[in-house]
Amino acid sequence: MTASDHALDSLAVAARAADAKGGDDLVALDVSGPLPFADVFLLVTGTSERNVIAIADEIEDVLREAGSKTLRREGHSSGRWILLDFGDLVVHVFHPEDRMYYGLERLWLDCPAVPLEPLLAG
C-alpha cells in the first residue's frame, strides 16, 4: 500500500510550512502499510518550546487554508511534542530532546521514507 495523493499533497503543504518556521530534520514516513488510520507521518524538530509551538501553529494554519481539518491536537501547551492529526497525515513536532528520547524513526524503521526535497522545492 502507498500513501494517497491527498496525504502527499497535505504533506507538501505541511513540510513547506514547517521549513518556513525554521523546522529542522524533517522526515516523512509512509505508514500506510502498517497503519489503517494514517498514510504519512511528518516528523519535525523545533529549536525551543516556542519554536515547536510556532511550527505546529503554522502547519495547522496553512493546512486549514488548504481545506484540511485538524482532527486532534495533543501537547500544544507544553511545546515539547505536539501531535497534529489531519486524518491521512499525522504531524509530530518535537523539541530536540523529546525527538531523540521517543525515537519514532526507530519505531517505524520498516516504513519507507517519503522524499521531501522535491516537495520543499515546489
TrEMBL record:
One of its GO terms (cellular component) is cytoplasm. Coiled coil: none annotated. Keywords: Cytoplasm, Repressor, Translation regulation. It comes from the Bacteria. Its main location: cytoplasm. InterPro entries: Iojap/RsfS/C7orf30, NT_sf. It is found in: Cytoplasm. GO terms for biological process: cytosolic ribosome assembly; negative regulation of ribosome biogenesis; negative regulation of translation. One of its GO terms (molecular function) is ribosomal large subunit binding. The keyword Cytoplasm applies. NCBIfam families: rsfS_iojap_ybeB. Functions as a ribosomal silencing factor. Interacts with ribosomal protein uL14 (rplN), blocking formation of intersubunit bridge B8. Prevents association of the 30S and 50S ribosomal subunits and the formation of functional ribosomes, thus repressing translation. Interacts with ribosomal protein uL14 (rplN). Belongs to the Iojap/RsfS family. This is Ribosomal silencing factor RsfS. It comes from Agromyces terreus.
